[in-house]
Amino acid sequence: MCAKVLIVEDEDALRQLLSYNLGKEGYTVASSADGDEAMMAVDEEKPDIVLLDWMLPNRSGVEICRQLRAQAETRDLPVIMLTARGEEEDRIRGLEIGADDYVTKPFSMTELVARMRAVLRRTRPTLAGDVATFADIVLDRETRRVRRAERDIHLGPTEFRLLDVLIQRPGRVFSREQLLDRVWGTDVYVEIRTVDVHVGRLRKALNKRGENDPIRTVRASGYALDETYTGG
Questions:
Q1: Is 1.10.10.10 the CATH classification of the domain at 131-225?
Q2: Which single residue of 15, 19, 126, 174 has CA 20 to 30 Å from 185?
Q3: Each residue's pLDDT tens digit, 19-60
């Protein structure tokens, strides 16, 4: 299962950067630009973890964190504060109001992802792992290995990312455009038919022994991992 993260950050460039990079890391991402919008998003999106900027329009991150901790439905929702405040007493204040961790800007994505995984391991252990499974397919993000029915599957980097996107949401149909954005990125021009080529390579690697094909082609729409696992 893939963790859903809600990013609450009013700086557009940073919010977009976080959304893009966390999406590439396998998280399902939602975002808000201000405090009022953030509280509505928590109700609507039901995130597994919140990245919460300290300084926000309308309501501060501190106020939002207090509100989350005051409500029974969100009392245990993991919160990581993002802030330019680096003073020790500010960090202590952030933790005292109920934040699970505190990351000072500027930070590296490697550090942030590590902090998120550490918090999820404590609070949502089933969502923290780097291993995803579907039927007899196992994808390990940390070792970059894929196995099917106890045999190693050798994939190129693009096929690995493609499988990673599909395995996060079995049954969901991803359009070719969505796969282009998630696998290649929004800042790279790639022809739409390239998706079909790499899906073909992924199928060939997965189905070497004639197993059922787990990738379903949805005509005029895109591709999905088939929840019924009948192939085709």
A1: yes
A2: 126
A3: 999 988 878 899 999 888 999 999 888 898 999 998 888 888
